[in-house]
Write a structure and sequence with these properties.
Elements: H1 2-9, H2 13-31, H3 36-66, H4 71-84, H5 88-92, H6 97-102, H7 105-118, E1 121-126, E2 133-135, E3 138-149, E4 154-164, E5 167-168, E6 183-190, E7 197-198, E8 204-206, H8 222-225, E9 228-229, H9 236-241, E10 250-251, H10 254-258, H11 260-264, E11 268-275, E12 281-287, E13 295-296, H12 301-311, E14 316-322, E15 328-333, H13 347-357, E16 365-369, E17 371-374, E18 377-380, E19 387-390, H14 391-396, H15 400-403, H16 406-410, H17 412-421, H18 433-439, H19 453-460, H20 470-481, E20 485-486, E21 504-505, H21 509-525, E22 539-549, E23 561-571, E24 578-584, H22 591-606
Helix pairs in contact: 1-2, 12-22, 13-17
């Protein structure tokens, strides 16, 4: 009765199958002549048999899986995996003793590096080694290898690793797929046409082939574009991997260097296997070059010529920015390299921190004196002159006696944080971060831990370990002119090449307005009157950084100092259009005398 009920519950194909089996067992038990105990044992053995077979199969499979494989194939796999990672020491460890006696590790590694460089190798991938085989009496393990190159496309072939005496019997043809015994790798590079560098209005700043680059507006463009030439030896390997042989002309400075890959395009040519005796040459891979793409800048050709003219061949730099968006309009000389002490132009940053923290106001009064003691040292005013009065007057006359004590009052953290909001301790935002990282332009810097009261006082007047470029101080002027908002200083117009940083609120609009009034005072009646122009009101700040005694004056009681002359400004003071930073290194006079007139020349041309 139970069996019948079970059959009804298990209806369907599976149910019918089980019902049939159960019926067979039932009939067998009814018809068996064996005693009940014997029959029970027989049924137990019969039911256990399938489980035993399963266990036996599992044991056999496990034994096969756990059995050791071919030692040569495993060594080939280790060698191939290490090759992918360029771990040459691990590859070398798989060589047999005879091969290791013939070639040292350094030469072994050099063989693979040279092959990668010649092939302009971008990446290398290996597949699982095939089963070992016998060829000419030797054991060989084939390893599929795929190499992606910059100049020649992809190279895919099988490298046969020969084994003998417990390791790989190495020879130089194993350094690259496609080589045969007795062959080495060579290449013939064909350069693509180099693309032009353009001004904001489309005027070519640099054009023509790499071997004969031309500058249609004259040499003044070179300060922006940079030059094409032979790369430094330290850059040769990296450039060779990109398809540029050591003697190939490439960008070595300026935008030519920063955007060399874009301007040069993708080289092409032939990758060849050459027999050692020179009797035969085979082409392993070849590809046509791809032309470069232009780089359009934010440079104004007329302002660029004006900036170079104003620098007049002197050592230093000039940077001119659009006050509204931070775009670079002109760069002359060392505009964003060779940072120098910014001198009193840094007082714009000190004043920002002091006003924002409330340690000073425009109407504060100061003693008229020739200097001040800070941290146990007497800091005198420029040329030992007396100055003071209201803070407006102290700023206009750039009075060290009033600004040095502000450093300790502001404190290390607030002074450094303010400078960093202005862009100190960060790379200049000239182009996209990937390009900045590759070119690694110099930063304007301030120590994060300045030191004691004296160090803070010296830093507050732009001396000590504070360093800046003309581009940085032009950016400071742009920030003040823009109501306290610092914009990225992009030099490229191509959207994908521009810097990523967003505008930074450095100070309140109120503080920016107060600084503008202070900077107007510098030009109308202070140290920067030579920066005035007829076209508009200029707001500026002079700076004269002392670098130490002039040669031969070291032991003099009052030695003549080597000086850097600075001027940072913007114009018009209301609704500014242009911001500028000027530096003259080891100048013949103070910032107000030589740097301010240079700035005035450029601002006048721009307005």
């Amino acid at each position: 009765m139970k069996d019948a009920q079970a059959a009804r519950l298990e209806d369907g194909p599976c149910g019918r199958a089980r019902r049939g089996t159960r019926t067979l067992h039932y009939l067998s038990s009814k018809m068996s002549p064996l005693p009940p105990e014997v029959e029970r044992r027989r049924r137990i053995v019969t039911r256990a048999l399938p489980l035993s077979l399963i266990a036996l199969v599992a044991f056999i499979v496990g034994a096969v899986a756990g059995a050791p494989g071919s030692p040569d194939k495993e060594a080939a796999k280790r060698f191939a995996d290490a090759w992918e990672r360029s771990e040459f020491a691990a590859m070398y460890a798989e060589l047999n003793p005879a091969s290791q006696r013939l070639i040292e590790l350094n030469d072994f590694a050099l063989a693979y590096r040279d092959a990668a460089m010649i092939a302009t190798q971008r990446s290398l991938d290996t597949d699982s080694p095939s089963d070992e085989t016998s060829r000419n009496g030797s054991t060989v393990v084939p390893v599929p290898v795929l190499v992606s190159t910059v100049a020649f496309g992809s190279v895919e072939d099988t490298v046969d690793l020969p084994f003998d005496e417990g390791g790989i019997a190495w020879n130089p043809s194993l350094a690259f797929p496609g080589l045969r015994s007795g062959e080495h790798l060579e290449s013939q590079i064909e350069l693509a046409p180099r693309a032009p560098i353009l001004a904001a209005d489309g005027t070519p700043l640099a054009e023509g082939p790499a071997e004969a680059r031309a500058h249609p507006i004259g040499s003044s463009a070179i300060d922006v574009t940079g030059e094409v030439g032979t790369a430094e030896e330290s850059d040769a390997e990296a450039l060779a991997r990109k398809g540029f042989a050591p003697d190939t002309p490439v960008g070595v400075s300026g935008l030519e260097e920063a955007f060399n890959a874009r301007l040069a395009g993708k080289p092409g040519g032939s990758l060849m296997a050459v027999s050692e005796d020179g009797s035969g040459t085979r082409t392993i891979a070849e590809a046509d070059p791809s032309p470069g793409a232009p780089v359009k800048t934010t440079i104004d050709p007329d302002l660029q010529e004006s900036a170079v003219s104003a620098l007049a061949g002197r050592v230093g730099g000039i940077a001119l920015l659009d006050s509204r968006n931070g775009n670079v309009r002109a760069l002359a000389g060392q505009a964003f390299s060779a940072p120098q002490p910014p001198g009193s132009t840094f007082k714009t940053i000190t004043t920002t921190a002091a006003l924002e923290k409330g340690v000073v106001s425009l109407n504060d009064e100061f003693e008229i004196t020739d200097g001040v003691n800070v941290g146990g040292r007497f800091i005198e005013n420029a040329n030992g002159e007396y100055c003071g009065g209201s803070f407006r007057e102290a700023f206009a006359e750039s009075c060290n006696a009033d600004f040095a004590p502000l450093g300790p009052k502001i404190g290390n953290d607030d002074l450094v944080e303010t400078a960093e909001r202005f862009g100190f301790n960060s790379p200049p935002t000239l182009y996209a971060p990937r390009i900045v990282a590759e070119v690694d332009p110099e930063e304007s810097t301030i120590p994060t831990e300045i030191g004691d009261e004296l160090d803070l006082g010296v830093s507050a007047i732009g001396q000590g370990e504070v360093l800046a470029t003309p581009l940085q101080m032009a950016s400071v002027a742009q920030t003040i002119a823009n109501g306290g908002v610092r914009e990225p200083t992009s030099i490229v117009a191509n959207e994908k090449l521009r810097p990523e940083p967003k505008p930074v609120r450095v100070m309140s609009k109120k503080t920016a307005d107060e600084l503008t009034k202070l900077m107007i005072g510098v030009v109308t009646g202070g140290t920067g009157t030579a920066g005035a122009i007829a076209e508009a009101q200029v707001a500026g700040k002079t700076g004269t950084a002392e670098l130490g005694p002039r040669p031969g004056e070291e032991n003099s009681e009052h030695p003549q100092q080597r000086k850097d002359a600075w001027f940072a400004a913007f114009a018009p003071a209301e609704k500014a259009k242009l911001a500028i930073g000027v530096l003259l290194i080891e100048a013949e006079a103070a910032g107000g005398e030589v740097a301010a007139p240079a700035a005035a020349q450029v601002l006048s041309a721009g307005l």
